[in-house]
Design brief:
14 strands; 11 helices; eight-stranded mixed sheet; alpha/beta; about 325 residues; single chain
Length: about 325
């Protein structure tokens, strides 16, 4: 099982111009960890959700969506705080812009004292992603979880950085560095790297730094250009797929889910196996994840693919 940690929220998609005092919009379940858990389940991988969901109507909707996809909900907390809301407005090229309404909401409402007991061998990996790495009290709780569980199983990180929500970047960088020391995989986008470390940040330099701290695999997603993996055995690249893009919402989450899924399918989602990955295994995982992300880009919103769709794309 892969335990996915972080937020679930409501994405409010603006559908068009206002009609009188009414603004057409569609409310959809979202949040990077929510998408990741759904993506893993759709790819046939057992996933559990560890996070805090509101008891309000939106929270009930999110919990029902996860359960309907087959995600194990026994680790989820229910909170009296409201569900966070994100207004999503894709531009002409399909690239989404986000406006967050997420102050003092349910997704932050998890403390270290509320963590489950130490996991057994049934938990192979823990995936932690998005802005919850930078907001309290959940950031402290998840860091405690990563420190506790990291020595025995894979911890995979995806910063999915949202500067408007995390406050001071210097504080975020310091905390992220502590998360990285627990991790076996770091997956991030070019945009994440540049926001966090500056527009002149060199991916190879940062990957080398993280590998030296004990990370086994660093993967940088590069939009239509594909992805690059950094490993002790070398640097590996996978070109993007040419598709008709509806929007890119959920593409990074799809890549992360598919990367973990492929590694697990191949029996490689273990710390010692990740450290020993060879070129063929790395290229296979990158190819699988890139194809999966391309499928999501052809659909509006975070509609992640199922295993049969990805296998069909692989030919």
């Amino acid at each position: 099982m892969i335990v996915v940690c972080g937020e679930a929220l409501i994405d409010l998609f603006i559908d068009g111009p206002p009609s009188g005092a009414t603004l057409p919009a569609t409310a959809a379940a979202g949040g990077s960890p929510f998408n990741l858990a759904v993506g893993l389940a759709r790819l046939g991988e057992p996933a559990a959700y560890l996070g805090s969901l509101s008891r309000d109507g939106f929270g009930a909707f999110l919990a029902a969506c996860l359960a309907a996809e087959g995600v194990d909900m026994t680790l989820a907390k229910r909170s009296a705080k409201p569900t966070p809301l994100v207004v999503v407005s894709p531009d002409a090229s399909g690239h989404p812009t986000y406006t967050f309404h997420a102050q003092d909401c349910a997704e932050r409402d998890l403390t270290a004292a509320e963590l489950p007991p130490a996991f057994g061998p049934e938990v192979e990996a823990i995936a932690i992603s998005s802005y919850v790495l930078g907001v309290e009290p959940i950031a402290g709780a998840l860091l405690a979880l990563a420190k506790r569980e990291g020595p025995r199983r894979v911890v995979s990180l995806d910063p999915n950085l949202r500067p408007a929500l995390i406050g001071d970047l210097g504080t975020w960088r310091s905390r992220f560095d502590r998360f990285v020391r627990t991790a076996a995989i770091v997956k991030l986008s070019e945009e994440d790297l540049q926001v966090a470390y500056g527009t002149d940040a060199n991916p190879a330099d940062w990957a080398r730094r993280w590998l030296e701290t004990g990370v086994s695999l660093v993967v940088l997603t590069q939009g239509p250009a594909g992805a690059t993996a950094f490993h002790a055995s070398g640097v590996f690249q996978e070109a993007g797929r040419a598709v008709a893009v509806a929007d890119t919402v959920g593409a990074g989450d799809t890549f992360h889910a598919a990367l973990l899924a492929r590694l697990r399918q191949r029996g490689l989602l273990r710390r010692e196996a990740l450290a020993a990955l060879n070129a063929a295994a790395l290229q296979d995982a990158l190819c699988y994840a890139t194809n999966a992300a391309a499928i999501t880009c052809t659909r509006r919103g975070a509609d992640l693919p199922r295993a049969a769709e990805v296998e069909a794309a692989l030919g």
